[in-house]
Amino acid sequence: YVVGFSQGAILITSLLALQRLPTTDNQNQKKPLLGCILMGGAWPNPYTNELESLANDATTNPCRVLIVTGQHDAINPYPQSERVQSALQKGGHDVTLLPFDGGHVVPTVQYHPETVQDILTWMQEGRQE
Q1: pLDDT at position 25, please?
Q2: Three-state secondary structure along 34-82?
Q3: Burial of 65 (0-12, 13-18, 19+ CB in 10 A)
Q4: Which of 116, 77, 113, 83 minimizes the C-alpha distance to 97?
Q5: What is the pLDDT along the chain (129 residues), one digit of tens a residue?
Q6: Residue 30: DSSP 8-state
Q7: Residue 43 contacts residue 83 (beta carbons within 8 Å)
Q8: Buried b (16+ CB within 10 A) or exposed e, 79-102
């Protein structure tokens, strides 16, 4: 899995838009990417054209993507996650949007146990495919 929070999630979204996520290890062996988890991310403005054009040029390497976003995120507002979800889906990625009752934070067992369980379940499902 590749996981990013805030700017890290934006970077992963950019790599998905550019179709540049690594699919091999350092011995050049094919390694399946089980999925990307984007937490508290936003629309990657410098890559708007690439992300929006995914619908016209669907990826040859689709990825499972989980977007975890706080419904009260004042840094990267929730509607940006919906926009990213839509663009990635149009590009052929399998995208799940998981909103939670929180702000610009990584969900923790202490404050968001249901969300953490949903993330773990999503990850386990990816290992079974």
Answers
A1: 57
A2: CCEEEECCCCCHHHHHHHHHHHCCCCCCCCEEEEEEECCCCCCCHHHHH
A3: buried
A4: 83
A5: 999 999 999 999 999 988 888 755 566 666 678 899 999 999 998 888 888 887 676 656 788 999 999 999 999 999 999 999 999 998 889 999 999 999 999 999 999 999 999 999 999 998 876
A6: B
A7: yes
A8: ebbeebbebbbbbbbebbbbbbeb
Angle at 125 between CA 96 and CA 26, to 5 degrees: 95
Which amino acid, 112? Answer: H
Residue 52 in tokens: 């929006």
Three-point CA angle 7, 74, 105, nearest 5°: 55
